[in-house]
Amino acid sequence: MSKDNKEVLYGLYDDEEILLSAVDKANEEHFDIMDVQTPFPVHGLDPKLGLAESRLHIAGFIYGALGTLTAFLFMTWVFTRDWPIIFGGKPYFSAPAFIPITFELTVLFASVGMVVTFYTICGLWPGVQNVHLDDRITDDKFCIAFDVSGQEESFKDKLKGFFSTTGASEVNIKNI
Fold it and tell me: Residue 42: which of 25, 26, 58, 18 has the closest Cα?
């Protein structure tokens, strides 16, 4: 087995409630869960796995503020220095007239910036080959996976026993 190759033991579950109780039991037995995959978001799973809240909203705020600043500064420059035209009796610097474009650029910068940030963090760029343990996980199955690379057979048997006691409908090993 090469360095890059991992041996993964995973169990498939039919219901999210059974999955949640299996995660609780794995935490009680101090098993190191490599990954949990579900076909849809499962409420309460993140705290059980010890995952912190996403900070993507902070990035969205920063991108939005950058969009607001860009729009406001650009329009200020255009209407006061580059092309100062009085139209409708308004002064050169008319902040209320800047609001629609400022809002639109705020939303544009925030949305595009958050998408790029999300794709970067998750590694979802074109051409990336993602590993799928089982095609049914995206349909109707729930999965808990453990990295068993270099582990003894007794540990693998212990994990198989864990899966059978927690209600896994199927247990498989895959090299990824």
Answer: 18
